[in-house]
Specification:
Radius of gyration of chain A: 22 Å
CATH architecture of the largest domain in chain A: 3-Layer(aba) Sandwich
Oligomer: heterodimer
Strand order of the largest sheet of chain A: 3-2-4-5
Shape of chain B: globular
Largest sheet of chain B: 5 strands, parallel
Low-confidence stretches of chain A: none
CATH class of the largest domain in chain A: Alpha Beta
Mean pLDDT of chain B: 88
Low-confidence stretches of chain B: none
Number of helices of chain B: 14
Largest interface: A-B, 27 and 23 residues
Bound molecules: iron/sulfur cluster
Helix content of chain B: 25-40%
Number of strands of chain B: 28
CATH architecture of the largest domain in chain B: 3-Layer(bba) Sandwich
Distance between the termini of chain A: 32 Å
Helix content of chain A: 25-40%
Structural class of chain A: alpha/beta
Shape of chain A: globular
CATH superfamily of the largest domain in chain A: Response regulator
CATH superfamily of the largest domain in chain B: FAD/NAD(P)-binding domain
Strand content of chain A: 15-25%
Structural class of chain B: alpha/beta
CATH class of the largest domain in chain B: Alpha Beta
CATH topology of the largest domain in chain B: FAD/NAD(P)-binding domain
Strand order of the largest sheet of chain B: 4-3-2-8-19
């Protein structure tokens, strides 16, 4: 899932300085699961804003809403009736959701309530680890299910650098060496021959804004694009 | 039946995990209360401790009882469901069966680790562990005419169980002809029943003890071994040349405990025992309703203590299962399935293992204790708790604003088990309490949502108090802890909005600490008044 962190409060209240009626919209999926932007956080942010403005003598009106997924227009549409009552919107979704919200309501200032941080996994409540940089050319099949793009400080794709301390990375002894982990995993599965396979250099040019059309949906997309 | 209670049906079979003496004893006692019991042992035997005939009798009794099904070579592979309705997968070899149980008793044993490294010794034919000696003695394989030296209490903190093993071996050694025994003892405790007597008896039979604080020097030179020590009584160096050195062992929680704690959703302590150090769980409760712990599964306890636990286990099992009609509070937590996104936060936070999920989170009425931790942690506000639903709490805060009218307005969220009692006591005994104090009851400090606290400030409260039980004395084990974590977060928020941090106080109180409550609330009032003057 996408993992985000709450933005520093000062930054949010700074962005909202000129606005007196604000709608804060949580996103019920990724950012709710990582405890950064669900209904609870949206409501809490509103309370914090109200309190800060009260202390400063410039009261603010706030409203809170929760949307199934802000990255789907159909769900955003549920806000159409209430958005008009506010001067600005804080979207607690990931950057994608914030932008889709801004696209839906182009005349309204839309502000991010969280910092979108990475694609990762849930270790425990409130504890997440980055796992994937969405490079667009997944190598996990040869690397024993461990991502060197994410885990290796230099994103090396063909074995460790000269700085490896076996188990740890040269940047920091608490950072495991991705390639040591890959070696151990492959050795355990008797697949060490994989490590000799050369992965061709990544075409990082593919890291421009990407669009994905899942197989079988090409025609549907073509039909929609024509409209 | 109380109006805020209701009755649900639960399963009444009981699973006892662990075929040691504690497990066999628990199975006998539980079956004695009229329940059907499945007793599993991971080995192909049950209760092998051959200390005395009592244990052999216990095993025979269990084997003869038609209500006890003994499953040997069997391990717990999976535990699903909730107290009163556990679905447990038991694996015997490759064969797996799923069985339903209302309650589970964990009676795992202890494991040992030989401490030869602490003495710089390598184990070999002449340097053996306490366990190896016990095996030799049990099989009658120890040759006569040997000098045996025990090293004990220098490699670890003293524990009566460690010394008990040595004393038992000395008794057995006394029966082997022409054996001399020396015991080098460091920090050791003899607190357990009967140990003093064994100690004295061995002494009379000619065992020689050296008790010192410094570890003896042990040298091994080929076949010649020598232990030397400064005798604190004679004040001179003493040397012993034994034929056999017996090295002490640390006694530790069963390695299986950690693997069991996870599927059972109970907490293990830092030493790997399955009962937290919290009086509410003594003698045999775990953190989860319907799961009980006996003997060495819960602490470093002897075989005898494990047998003693069996009676308590049977009482607790009966208290929980009764006749299969369970009375539960109607105030259990409830999930709004439209709001739940199955983030698993509630499942991971519930200290009572009352939550599971299928396509959405589900809270088991039989297991929920109504602490409200889940409701306060859910990121989508999808959980509501009976009388303490968010709306009711918001209304309580709002009502306080109108009725109190006194300044400063201090909202105290009080755990009804401790804080609320302390507040009431302060009032009854006429201790000073701020005029503008509004006490709001919560079922447990775990129910104090950050949102309620912020709401109180937004509504105009000048100060907010979170009154919790002492950590380690919370009925929900973690409620006070969660409250203290949330308080730390809110203090950061107060700082960022420009309010003094002392506007929020999180304090743990026992229910008889009315005086203390008076002090901290009056102090808060004083500091608020001072800041506004
Ligand atoms: S908007 Fe972002 S956070 Fe929300 S569901 Fe979509 S990807 Fe996840
Ligand atoms: S290689 Fe790593 S960064 Fe690339 S898609 Fe796979 S997991 Fe993600
Ligand atoms: S914490 Fe809330 S959203 Fe998450 S699983 Fe539980 S009920 Fe569902
Ligand atoms: S109220 Fe407490 S016991 Fe009940 S489900 Fe929630 S966390 Fe568990």
């Amino acid at each position: 899932m996408i993992v985000a962190e709450k933005k520093p409060f000062d930054e949010i209240s700074g962005m909202l300085a000129g606005f007196d009626k604000v709608l804060t919209v949580g996103c019920k999926t990724c950012v709710a699961v990582c405890l950064a932007g669900g209904e609870k956080e949206a409501v809490l942010l509103n309370k914090e804003l109200m309190l800060a403005r009260k202390v400063a003598g410039k009261p603010i009106e706030t409203g809170a809403a929760l949307v199934e997924r802000q990255c789907d227009m159909e769900f955003l549409a549920e806000l159409d009736d209430i958005v008009g009552q506010y001067d600005a919107i804080v979207s607690m979704a990931c950057g994608a959701g914030v932008q889709f919200m801004a696209e839906r309501y182009p005349e309204k200032p839309v502000f991010p309530g969280v910092n979108t941080t990475f694609i990762g996994v849930n270790r425990d409540v409130g504890w997440y680890e980055e796992k994937c940089r969405s490079c667009g050319n997944c190598l996990l099949g040869v690397t024993g299910g461990i991502c060197p793009i994410t885990m290796c400080a230099k994103s090396l794709m063909n074995g460790p650098c000269g700085g490896t301390n076996q188990t740890s990375c040269e940047i920091n002894k608490d950072q495991p060496c991705a390639w040591y982990a890959i070696y151990k995993r492959l050795a355990g599965q008797n697949r060490l021959d994989n490590i000799l396979k050369i992965t061709e250099i990544m075409d990082w040019r593919n890291n421009v804004p990407r669009t994905i059309v899942q197989p079988g949906y090409e025609q549907r997309k073509a039909a929609f694009s024509e409209k | 039946m109380n109006a805020d209670k209701k009755i649900i049906r639960i399963a009444t079979d009981v699973l006892v995990i662990g075929g040691g003496t504690a497990g066999v004893a628990a199975a006998n006692e539980v079956a004695g209360k009229g329940y059907k019991v499945v007793l599993t042992s991971k080995e192909d035997k049950v209760a092998q401790e051959t200390k005395n005939g009592v244990i052999a009798d216990m095993v025979a009794k269990a084997e003869a009882n038609a209500d006890i099904e003994i499953m040997k070579n069997t391990v717990v592979a999976k535990v699903m469901g909730v107290p009163g309705d556990f679905a447990v997968t038991l694996k015997t070899g490759d064969k797996a069966v799923e069985r339903k149980f209302g309650a589970i008793v964990v009676a795992t044993g202890l494991t040992t680790k030989v401490l030869n490294d602490a003495y710089g010794l390598e184990l070999g034919p002449k340097v053996i562990s306490q366990s190896q000696l016990e095996a030799l003695l049990a099989q009658g394989k120890l040759e006569s005419g040997k000098t045996v030296a025990f090293l004990v209490g220098f490699g670890q903190d003293g524990n009566p169980l460690v010394m008990e093993r040595v004393l038992d071996s000395l008794t057995a050694l006394g029966k082997v002809a022409e054996t001399d025994a020396y015991v080098f003892v460091g920090d050791i405790k003899l607190a357990a029943d009967g140990l003093d007597q064994l100690y004295a008896q061995a002494r009379q039979e000619g065992v020689i003890y050296f008790k010192t604080t410094d570890a003896p020097k042990v040298s091994v030179d080929g076949d010649a071994m020598c232990i030397s020590i400064l005798d604190p009584v004679l004040r001179q160096q003493v040397e012993v040349a034994p034929d056999l050195i017996v090295v002490e062992e640390a006694i530790l929680a069963d390695e299986d405990n950690a693997a069991l704690a996870e599927p059972l959703q109970i907490e293990a302590d830092k030493n790997g025992f399955l009962q937290p150090d919290n009086v509410h769980y003594f003698p045999v409760k775990s953190t989860r309703l319907g799961i009980f712990v006996a003997g060495a599964a819960r602490d470093l306890l002897s075989v005898e203590q494990g047998i003693q636990d069996a009676g308590n286990v049977a009482l607790e099992v009966k208290k929980f299962l009764g006749d299969g009609n369970l009375e539960v509070p109607s105030n259990t937590a409830f999930v709004d399935v439209d709001k739940c996104t199955v983030c698993l936060t509630c499942y991971r936070c519930c200290p009572h293992g009352a939550i599971f999920w299928d396509s959405r989170a589900i809270i088991a009425e039989a297991a929920c204790q109504g602490c409200g931790i889940c409701a306060s942690e859910c990121p989508n506000d999808a959980i509501q708790l009976g009388d303490y639903a968010d709306e009711a709490m918001a209304k309580a805060i709002q009502d306080g604003q109108g009725t109190s009218g006194k300044s400063p307005w201090i909202v105290a969220f009080c755990c009804k088990n401790s804080g609320l009692e302390a507040v009431n006591m302060a009032k009854t005994f006429g201790y000073r309490v701020p005029a503008g104090l509004q006490a709001i009851e919560v079922p447990c400090a775990g129910k104090i949502d950050m949102d309620y606290v912020m709401d109180a400030f937004v509504q105009g409260a000048d100060g907010v108090m979170l009154l919790t039980c002492h950590n380690g004395n919370c009925k929900s084990d973690k409620g006070a802890l969660y409250a203290s974590w949330r308080a730390a977060e809110i203090k950061k928020m107060l700082a960022s909005v420009g309010l003094p941090e002392d506007r929020l106080v999180c304090a743990s109180l026992a229910n008889n600490m009315g005086r203390k409550f008076s002090e901290i609330s009056v102090e808060m009032e004083r500091s608020i008044k001072k800041a506004s003057s």
